[in-house]
Amino acid sequence: MPSRQKITYGFPQKEIPTDAASLNKTLEQIGIRSREMLNLTVKELHPTKQIHTTSIYACEKVEIPADNSCLFASISYLCTGSTSHATEDRFHCVSVIKNNPTKYTEATLVSPNKEYCAWLSDMRHWGGYIEMEILSEKYNVEICVLQVENNLIVPINGAQSKKRIYLLYDNIHYDALVFKAHTPPEVRKIVDASDEEATIQAKELMNIARAAGGYTNVKTMTYKCTICNKILNGSKEAHDHSAKTNHMDYVQIQNL
């Protein structure tokens, strides 16, 4: 696999060197900055009896605006071709949760159903697994979340679909992954769940992002509760604070 891969970065695009001297350098030493967008291209192969090929040959990250709606915007972009349905998807989730109180209980939501719906309706907040499961059913697609820090792919398939989309998650932000195909020449946002080549390329892009430090360690972040102004160190303290007070509105503090 590595022999037919090419990784490029920057603008104009430059290929990451693979000579012996460069292999001993860090990405920073090569000149790749933190959060640099990397493109993975798999060179086309001549089909043989031993090699299974697909029409997908390149995986790329599509940067989604960091406006607290990146989860909804990423899914909207991949499923409809536009981020313009992000708000609609957010309130679709609110409606589903509100109208199914026996399924979305306080134990499931970690807050009363009514309060959670009010929280999610606030454009400063975003969802997670619950909202992705709902949108999986809405769009009849499996959502695979690539968690950069943990090097994991988490499949969410409320619809039991055979189609799949990929999201790249750095602990505080979601971006969309797309695949460039040559037969026919197009950008594919939705792929078959059985397409192993797409999974391999998505994993490679996640590994590259992880090696470049493309994630945020939420365990060491400092938060401020906007309701009572309490300062909290790390996600565990914030979670414990929410459990005790039912306060769920936080802002990140860069420097105290």
UniProtKB/TrEMBL annotation:
GO terms for biological process, alphabetical: endoplasmic reticulum unfolded protein response; ERAD pathway
Keyword field: Cytoplasm, Hydrolase, Protease, Thiol protease, Ubl conjugation pathway
Keyword check for Protease: yes
Broad class of where this protein is predominantly found: cytoplasm
Native source organism of the sequence: Trichomonas vaginalis (strain ATCC PRA-98 / G3)
GO (cellular component) term, any one: cytoplasm
One Gene Ontology molecular-function label: cysteine-type deubiquitinase activity
Pfam families (UniProt xref): OTU (PF02338), zf-C2H2_OTU1_C (PF24560)
Residue ranges of domain C2H2-type in the record: 225-247
Protein name as it appears in the record: Ubiquitin thioesterase OTU
Enzyme nomenclature, EC number: 3.4.19.12
Catalysed reactions, as listed in the record: Thiol-dependent hydrolysis of ester, thioester, amide, peptide and isopeptide bonds formed by the C-terminal Gly of ubiquitin (a 76-residue protein attached to proteins as an intracellular targeting signal)
Matches recorded under CDD domains: OTU_OTU1
Subcellular location: Cytoplasm
Top-rank EC class of the record's enzyme: hydrolase
Role according to the record: Hydrolase that can remove conjugated ubiquitin from proteins and may therefore play an important regulatory role at the level of protein turnover by preventing degradation.
Superkingdom, taxonomy of origin: Eukaryota
